[in-house]
Design brief:
seven-stranded antiparallel β-sheet; 12 helices; elongated; alpha+beta
Length: 388
């Protein structure tokens, strides 16, 4: 018993000499195991994280299935077109299917035919000839929803160190789009901006942008009825164009003076142009000149033109009982400040009565060719002279 106690004491004594660090490691290891086991136990945070992961995986799986189903419909449609002899149409469908799923050829069941009633394939069945989509806005919104769990306006194609425009909030992007339209209602620039990507296309169809444009043209009392949207109202309702100049060419033959010998009398052909430039705030410019449009139109792009013969004024719309939209224009020469000379007792002048000329023009809106509201028909033209 004594020897046994000595051995035990020897072991204990030996442990006291060699195990201070080991005992500390054992304590840290046991604490780490306890923390690890507590993290593995199901709790509120664990359940939330698990649900989030499962939801993301489920949404990704649904996106892949939807993309694969859409590619399958496109591929089967291409097979039908190829069998019917329309090789060019078949190539387009093949290309679109391969862009969605590169190995769709090996996942196809050739025994089934494409379902025309499927939601994802209706845009193909409705317009087979030119592959156009009726509701492009809804289609792009659906595609952005399928691509990512968080709706992003756009994504950068190449990795850059600079901040991409997709990092901006949607509200800031909408301010940028309104700045592009500006007070001049440059909706053409807005349409060009919508061609950048699908996200910009959605932003360019924002109802607030088109509502503000309609209020600037027709006043704050206008309503979009009977149109379905503000954009449709701006495009369909008769109005003057702000992205160009209306040009009227007038030509006539005038008899000249008789020659000195009385043998002949000359005839002259006179040609001149009238230019009308409208602005969204109700202002208008009119210029009458014999110069051709090639040299005159660039000078009328802004209101700060230096042409002395330009007349400035305003216009208004009127819709009579005949359901025809008319435009009434009143223009006059801009008043110039004249320097008053000092009166002298040796110089007595009779004041010359000043005459103000104003031109009243009545026009009727019409369309010609493929463009809308690109013609104005003259109704009347008169000159009013006022002496002061």
């Amino acid at each position: 018993m004594a020897e046994s106690n000595m051995n035990s004491g020897g072991v204990a004594e030996e442990g006291e000499d060699e195990n201070p660090d080991d005992s500390h490691l054992q304590l840290e290891l046991s604490a780490f195991r306890a923390q690890w086991m507590s993290e593995l136990l199901p709790g509120p945070r664990y359940g939330e994280a698990k649900r989030r992961l499962l939801g993301a995986a489920d949404q990704k799986r649904r996106q892949e299935l939807a993309r694969e189903e859409e590619a399958r419909e496109l591929f089967l449609k291409a097979v039908e077109e190829e069998q019917s002899g329309a090789v060019y149409e078949a190539i387009k469908y093949y290309r679109r299917a391969m862009q969605l799923v590169p190995d769709i050829e090996f996942k196809i069941n050739y025994n089934r035919s494409p379902d025309p009633d499927r939601v994802g394939g209706t845009y193909l069945a409705e317009n087979e000839g030119d592959c156009e989509i009726d509701d492009l806005l809804a289609y792009f919104q659906h595609q952005l929803t399928l691509q990512s769990s968080t709706l992003k306006i756009c994504e950068h194609e190449v990795e850059t160190t600079q901040v991409h425009i997709s990092a901006l909030p949607t509200e800031v992007l909408m301010y940028i789009f309104r700045w592009v339209v500006s007070c001049d209602l440059d909706l053409r620039a807005l349409e060009q901006l919508s061609l950048v990507c699908r996200g910009f296309y959605i932003c360019a169809r924002d109802p607030e942008i088109w509502r503000l444009a309609c209020l600037k043209v027709w006043g704050r009392n206008c309503t979009k009825l009977p149109f379905s949207s503000w954009r449709e109202m701006f495009l369909e309702k008769p109005r003057v164009r702000f992205d160009g100049v209306y040009i009227s060419k007038t030509s006539y033959i005038r008899q000249g003076e008789e020659s000195l010998d009385g043998f002949y009398r000359a005839w002259h052909q006179v040609e001149y142009y009238r230019y009308l430039r409208f602005f969204p705030d109700g202002q208008v410019m009119m210029l009458t000149t014999p110069e051709d449009p090639l040299s005159t139109v660039p000078r009328l792009r802004s209101r700060s033109t230096r042409l002395e013969s330009v007349l400035f004024g305003h216009y208004r719309f009127s819709q009579d009982t005949d359901n025809q939209t008319k435009v009434y224009v009143v223009v006059a020469k801009r008043k110039e400040e004249k320097a008053e000379y000092q009166k002298s007792r040796f110089c007595r002048r009779n004041p010359v009565p000043e005459a103000e000329h104003s031109f009243h023009v009545g026009l009727q809106l019409s369309s010609g060719g493929r463009q809308r509201f690109n013609k104005l028909v003259w109704i009347h033209h008169s000159c009013h002279i006022t002496y002061r």
